[in-house]
Amino acid sequence: MHDPKFLRQHRDKVEAGVALKGMTVDLAAFYAIEERRLAVLHETEELKARRNAASEAIAARRKRGEDAAADIAAMREVGDRIQALDA
Predict the structure, then answer these.
(1) For the chain: N or C, fewer Cβ within 10 A?
(2) Contacts of the segment 68-75: beta carbons below 8 A, 24+ positions apart
(3) d(Cα 68, Cα 61) in Å, to the nearest integer?
(4) What is the pLDDT of residue 44?
(5) Are 54 and 75 in contact (CB under 8 A)?
(6) What is the pTM of this model?
């Protein structure tokens, strides 16, 4: 098994190696799936950062005695999206 990062960074070498060995591998499908995986990973990381920042803001609002119900509801939606992406 090869490192996906290596496969992404050395497409020409990988394709040449596959051809040299006479193998049939759908590299286009791999690259498409890998691109989608990276996009999902990036979105998940952004949402987690947003959730963490919002959690701090919600805690500060609660400490000041302010209502944070709307923020909490919005972050529940973010949490649901994170769970869906992680699944």
Answers:
(1) N
(2) 75/51
(3) 6
(4) 97
(5) yes
(6) 0.75
Asked whether the predicted pLDDT for residue 1 surpasses 80, the reply is no
Flag whether pLDDT at 25 surpasses 90: no
Structural domain range at position 44 = 4-86
Torsion over CA: 63, 68, 69, 73 (sign)? negative
For a pLDDT cut of 70, what percent of the chain falls above it? 100
CA-to-CA distance for 61 and 51, rounded, in angstroms?
15
Q: Are 18 and 27 in contact (CB under 8 A)?
A: yes
Q: What's the DSSP call for residue 72?
A: H
CATH number for the domain spanning 80: value is: 1.10.287.40
Number of structural domains in the chain: 1
| Residues 31-71 pLDDT 10s | 999 999 999 999 999 999 999 999 999 999 999 999 999 99
The CA distance from 29 to 33, in Å, is 6
